[in-house]
Amino acid sequence: MKSKYIDFKQKRSYEELKEPAEAIKQGKLVLFPTETVYGIGADALNEAAVKKIYEAKGRASDNPLIAHISSLEMLKRLVENVGEIEKRLIDKFWPGPLTIVFKKREIVPNIITGGLDTVAIRMPSSIIARKLIEYSGCPVAAPSANISGKPSGTLIEDIVDELDGKVEYIIDSGKVEIGVESTVVRVVDNVVHILRPGKITKEDIEKMGIEVYVEKQILGEYKEGEKVMSPGIKYKHYAPNTKCVLVYSEDNEKMVEEIKRLSEGKNVVILSKGQNIERYDVQNKLNMGKTLEEISQNIFTLLRKADKYNADVILIEGVEKEGLGLAIMNRLIRASAHEFIEI
Ligand code: TXA
Ligand code: MG
């Protein structure tokens, strides 16, 4: 059966979210937009409903989900205690693209936490997302909308084929605002550990006078059996079917020359920054944008588009690893399965 489609690209009354909210209450799945990426939502406190999310995505059962909330009352129902640093982060960044890991209360089912005693929580800034949660009256567990291992969904057109029929409703609000998933953090001994980088950056948190530690595995490789702060680190991610090679140098000339060299005699697609695109004399090239904000918005949809050329290889320009660039590089390194040439 096809999913019911709600077009929220045009201005509509939020009242129309009451129907999909009712579906969530009844234990069904709803594909909905947030400011970061689209999510597949279910009642976070209903085990059978959450199980359907794992099935729809083909997701490993030990990879926990984020519970999305619309009010601080909901937070209190889910967690034991909110520490001082967490309180400051909440004041500054919620609603917004920051997920915080807390010690969970008993009522949070193990299925959403992958058996951990912690739960990841975020209050999205997207009004559609918040209204949907508010009308459903329950926290909404939602992973990114994509089959596990594939690039996250930032446009409904990209994901409709893989998810149509697996959810009760699809709410389409067009292209999302940010394009990479939320920053995931956990506070340990007054230090904020970044488990997944996103739009809220290390620098943003440091500016508050808080110490920040970026987990090594964010830019490195996960080795079988290694201890991880976030189970998501263990799994293959964001990868098109075509092999991807990521190239970066602080010296832009060197990067462009290396990509030109790698493309010689091959059927390639190049993902290039707007500033460099004219310099590649190849048939297939895609413009990622000029700023980190544009690149972050476009990256997942372009990885999917690049895959359609059936090229030998997708060659991707890297960006600096600071600010939002760290989130972009984290996704690109994983999309290219660590085929990363840094010169
Ligand atoms: O922007 C986002 O966060 C999107 C939208 C839909 O809100 N959601 C999202 O969910 O990206 P997902 O499931 O694709 O990624 C959740 C990440 C995973 O890497 C998971 O391992 C980590 O959060 N995570 C969830 N619960 C955790 C926990 N208790 N401790 C550590 N990491 C956790
Ligand atoms: Mg995901």
Gap between N and C termini:
50 Å
Mean pLDDT: 96
Percent in strands: 15-25%
Total count of strands: 16
In order across it, which strands form the biggest sheet? 1-8-2-3-7-4-6-5-9-10-11
CATH superfamily membership of the largest domain: DHBP synthase
Low-confidence stretches: none
Question: Would you summarize the structure shown here?
Answer:
With 343 residues, the chain is of the alpha/beta class. The protein has eleven helices and 16 strands. The strands form two sheets. The protein has an eleven-stranded mixed β-sheet, sandwiched between helices. A five-stranded parallel β-sheet has the order 14-13-15-12-16, sandwiched between helices.
Structure description:
With 343 residues, the chain is an alpha/beta fold. It folds into two domains: 4-178, DHBP synthase (Alpha-Beta Complex); 244-342, Rossmann fold (3-Layer(aba) Sandwich), CATH 3.40.50. It has helices at residues 18-25, 47-57, 72-78, 84-93, 110-113, 127-136, 156-163, 202-206, 252-263, 292-307, 324-335, and strands spanning 4-7, 30-32, 39-43, 66-68, 98-103, 118-122, 140-141, 169-172, 183-188, 191-196, 211-214, 244-248, 268-273, 284-289, 313-317, 340-342. Helix 1 (18-25) crosses helix 6 and helix 10 (292-307) packs parallel to helix 11. The longest helix is centred in the C-terminal third of the chain and has 16 residues, at 292-307. The site of magnesium ion has 3 residues, from loops.
